UniProtKB/TrEMBL annotation:
<dbReference type="InterPro" id="IPR003753">
    <property type="entry name" value="Exonuc_VII_L"/>
</dbReference>
<feature type="domain" description="OB-fold nucleic acid binding">
    <location>
        <begin position="28"/>
        <end position="119"/>
    </location>
</feature>
<comment type="similarity">
    <text>Belongs to the XseA family.</text>
</comment>
<dbReference type="GO" id="GO:0005737">
    <property type="term" value="C:cytoplasm"/>
</dbReference>
<dbReference type="GO" id="GO:0003676">
    <property type="term" value="F:nucleic acid binding"/>
</dbReference>
<dbReference type="InterPro" id="IPR020579">
    <property type="entry name" value="Exonuc_VII_lsu_C"/>
</dbReference>
<keyword id="KW-0540">Nuclease</keyword>
<dbReference type="Pfam" id="PF13742">
    <property type="entry name" value="tRNA_anti_2"/>
</dbReference>
<comment type="subunit">
    <text>Heterooligomer composed of large and small subunits.</text>
</comment>
<dbReference type="Pfam" id="PF02601">
    <property type="entry name" value="Exonuc_VII_L"/>
</dbReference>
<dbReference type="InterPro" id="IPR025824">
    <property type="entry name" value="OB-fold_nuc-bd_dom"/>
</dbReference>
<feature type="compositionally biased region" description="Polar residues">
    <location>
        <begin position="1"/>
        <end position="18"/>
    </location>
</feature>
<dbReference type="GO" id="GO:0008855">
    <property type="term" value="F:exodeoxyribonuclease VII activity"/>
</dbReference>
<comment type="function">
    <text>Bidirectionally degrades single-stranded DNA into large acid-insoluble oligonucleotides, which are then degraded further into small acid-soluble oligonucleotides.</text>
</comment>
<keyword id="KW-0269">Exonuclease</keyword>
<dbReference type="GO" id="GO:0006308">
    <property type="term" value="P:DNA catabolic process"/>
</dbReference>
<dbReference type="GO" id="GO:0009318">
    <property type="term" value="C:exodeoxyribonuclease VII complex"/>
</dbReference>
Length: 467
């Protein structure tokens, strides 16, 4: 039994990875292509593919479209702008290249293609891998350690150049040195910079320069080129010769973007041969300007020194006096000190008396006058006594008035005028209405001279408006 793949129903959108397809259900072409594209991307990892460029096109968007082929087959390729802008070169028809790509499908057309991430010329990959291996080996040995780097001389007596006599870089270096430091002699150690045996000849010239001791610094340089052209500077022998050199070496190989093993082994890497010449040569104009500044500084310093010495001489001349004059001055000083001593002895007493007089004056000024204060207090006492008497009189009159009014409104006075007050004997409440008088109800009668408890036998209530 073998399993069957199935697709999701039509109109259901993208297929779900890993979902079995039902062979009896029709699916859209887009869903099938998407499933195939997903399977391709998962099945094929990033891989380097070698071939010849064909039908290369750069779109207005910046994307690259081309085919890569060999004698038996070809494959369409696309390299999007985001990656194409970092490519070191633009492929042309017939170029032998290697691309690092992912196998995908262009779903709208159902075409198989390579999604290219990087591109390089055929053969450069192996050279670059050899470059990386040698770099890692020498770095592990400590050949590139910063602690081993030698400082460049500030003012070299002579400059050596290791390069080819026919190299354009030599002319650039010589022109720069003649412009910046025409006073410094230059010695060229000729050696080929490209081809078989170039690395050994370069290393031999570096060793010869160290043996002769004619220069203070070496420049190893050549112009730009491909990785094959610069490969002599990636050889192990040359790197070890540079590292073993007792003379400081500046590497100026290729352009700023070119990097070689010699750059890592050298004491200083310059971006170009011209830059290497600028690093090792002090600028003559700046030296002359600095020299003029030093001369002016020295002249100003010498002038200030002479001024200080003349001032010191005048001061010493003023101090140079005869013994008689010195005795006279010392006698005058002694008299002055004696007068100051006498004044200093009497001054504390005088100051103390002045302070005492000042304190006494302040005390007399602020001494309290008890007679005046006593009179003031007596006046306050009389006023207080008079005020209290008047207040007592007012309160007594007010109490008498309130007593009279209270006496007028007293219930006892009302009873004395012939009235009586009837109260319920049980509740003690006043009887106000004839209707409250009931038979056999006990009452308490309050009269002017006492009270009596009574009981009603016959009650005939009668309502009137008054007496």
């Amino acid at each position: 039994m073998h399993s069957r793949s199935s697709f999701p129903p039509s109109g259901s959108g993208a297929s779900t990875p890993g979902q079995p397809f039902d062979g009896d259900v029709a699916v859209p072409v887009s869903v099938l292509n998407r499933a195939i594209s997903t399977a391709l991307e998962r099945s094929f990892p990033l891989v380097w593919v070698a071939g010849e460029v064909s039908n290369f096109t750069r779109a207005a968007s910046g994307h690259w479209y081309f085919s890569i082929k060999d004698a038996q087959a070809q494959m369409r390729c696309v390299m999007f702008r985001g990656r194409a802008q970092y490519a070191e070169f633009t492929p042309r028809e017939g170029d032998k290249i290697e691309v690092r790509a992912l196998v995908t499908m262009y779903e709208p057309r159902g075409e198989l293609q390579l999604n290219v991430e990087a591109v390089r010329r055929t053969g450069l990959g192996r050279l670059y891998e050899a470059f990386l291996r040698l770099k890692a080996q020498l770095e592990a040995e400590g050949l590139f350690d910063a602690d081993n780097k030698r400082p460049l001389p500030t003012h070299p007596r002579a400059i050596g150049i290791v390069t080819s006599l026919q190299a354009a870089a030599l002319r650039d270096v010589l022109t720069t040195l003649a412009r910046r430091a025409p006073h410094i002699p230059v010695i060229v150690y000729p050696a080929p910079v490209q081809g078989a045996g170039a690395s050994e000849r370069l290393a031999a010239m570096i060793e010869a320069a160290n043996a002769r001791r004619e220069v203070d610094v070496l420049i190893v340089c050549r112009g730009g080129g491909s990785i094959e052209d610069l490969w002599a500077f990636n050889e192990e022998g040359l790197a070890r010769a540079i590292a073993a050199s007792e003379l400081p070496i500046v590497s100026g190989v290729g352009h700023e973007t070119d990097v070689t093993i010699a750059d890592f082994a050298a004491d200083v890497r310059a971006p170009t041969p011209t830059g290497a010449a600028e690093l090792v040569s002090p600028q003559r104009t700046m030296l002359l300007r600095e020299l003029d500044h030093r001369v002016a500084t020295l002249a100003r310093g010498f002038g200030r020194l002479m001024e200080r010495r003349a001032q010191q001489l005048d001061w010493l001349a003023r101090r140079l006096v005869s013994p008689a004059e010195r005795l006279r001055r010392q006698r005058a000083l002694l008299e002055q000190l004696q007068a100051r001593l006498a004044a200093a002895g009497s001054r504390p007493v005088r100051d103390a008396r002045a302070r005492f007089a000042l304190v006494q004056a302040h005390w007399q000024r602020w001494r309290p006058d008890f007679g005046v204060h006593r009179q003031t207090l007596d006046g306050f006492a009389r006023r207080l006594e008079h005020g209290l008497a008047r207040q007592h009189e007012r309160h007594a009159a007010k109490v008498a008035m309130l007593g009279a009014r209270l006496e007028v409104l007293s219930p006892q006075r009302t009873l004395e005028r012939g009235y009586a007050a009837l109260l319920d004997a049980q509740t003690g409440r006043a009887i106000r209405s004839p209707s409250a008088l009931k038979r056999d109800r006990r009452l308490t009668v309050h009269l002017a001279e006492g009270a009596a408890d009574i009981s009603l036998a016959d009650v005939q209530p009668r309502l009137t408006d008054g007496f």
